[in-house]
Amino acid sequence: MNLERVDQIAKAVLYEGYMLYPYRPSSVKNRQRFNFGVLYPRSYSEAQGASEPSAMQIECLVSGGAGALLEAKLRFLQLQTRTRQQSQGTAPDEWEEVVERTITAAACSVDELRRAKKGTEFAFQDEATFVSCGPDGTRVRRQLARVDGIIEVSAQKIRQDLFKIRVNIRNNTPMDGSEPRDEALMHSLVSTHVILGVESGEFVSLLEPPEELREIAAECQNIGAWPVLVGDAGYRDTMLASPIILYDYPQIAPESAGDLFDGTEIDEILSLRIMTLTDEEKREIRASDDRARQILERTENMPAEQFMKLHGTVRGMRPLKENIG
Fold this sequence. Notes:
The protein is of the alpha+beta class. 22% of the residues lie in helices and 34% in strands.
């Protein structure tokens, strides 16, 4: 699996909604974030009548022999509370940051997965770290909560040289289920998605399957995520299953200068809005979050030529028909 070809798309999915314009911690929409791909602890999910999911299921098709080798990578964000022990500036005393997590399931042939599903358990324990910052002795405390889970991979033979792959992810963090949502989020998998790779085989597009596989593809049951082909157009060795609906071979526009975390907006509008922030708002952004600070600095230092590229690009031209109507 060549992760370099899909990492940009995967990162865009991972951080979708991480922080929204105006990128200030004091703005209401940045005090309650992460609406995509959240897997809560199972006990909390059950207490909510399963309205808040604790599991995700992905199914797709692989064409190839029984020796085709499958690899699965689970990626998610884990929330981290950052507390300033001496308040300075305009940033709130408490703020939610994130830590990236990647769980790699051991590569197995589809024949092995057909005979027995393979489970990979993971666990991250409570952890607190302290960092001193600034000459005034301000200390920052970062707190991670416990997160336990499992990724299971299995395969079913559909016919000669065609297999259905199933990936299940579950959040098994022990909780009694009575906790408030904010606390349950600290024990959750956020922006959960899976990258699948295959050697000596090919994935079948679920969006545009061959006619003879259309009914079989329609029977794949995906819950909480949808797998699409990623990488260079025409290659079928990598799939991304994300909670955000994408098309096969999604791309980041080459004109984009960097992450803005809001795929529902366009770079030009967001960049121009950032330039209108007051000095006080910019100070709050710089003091609150490294990723937000990078957005601000990148936008302030963007040359005029780059801004012009954001205005619009023609991807292709088609001649008009001489006779219309």
